[in-house]
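Lab channel / #folding
Pinned by the channel admin:
"Please post every new chain as: sequence first, then the structure tokens as a reply. Keep commentary short and put observations after the output so the thread stays searchable."

First post following the new format, from NK:
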Amino acid sequence: MSSTKDSGPVLPPPRRPYLLRAMHQWMSDAALTPHIIVDSSVPGAEVPQAHVKDGKIVLNASYNATQRLNISNDWVTFDARFGGIIQHVRFPVRAVLGIYARETGEGMAFSGDDPTPPPDQTGPGAGDEAARRPQLKIVK
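Reply from TO:
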């Protein structure tokens, strides 16, 4: 009989990116305009500072207003026009305070106590996946 060492409890992935993607898709499918509220003070957040008020920014995240929108488990990235100029926007998912539909106000707020670990500050896809990949060992 083979056995493996118990390395402790396996933590589930954070809920925030899954709920954010689900709400975004629901709003898009319902022909509503998803707006995302972002805490611009979170490290790694790159948002147009001219539109930040009280440390927060509300971003139209509809497919019509963005290009190359990507909501991954760690980062939200897209290009959008601000004052007629295309800017690249990126922020950690943990910076998202909420998402709501502009037309109805329906949405979801996220609390600050979500156990989402800080993402790798080098940006999306910078080898952080390999560090979390489970390791298999042959036990004889």
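NK: Residues 125-131 have pLDDT under 50 and may be disordered.
TO: also worth noting, The radius of gyration is 18 Å.
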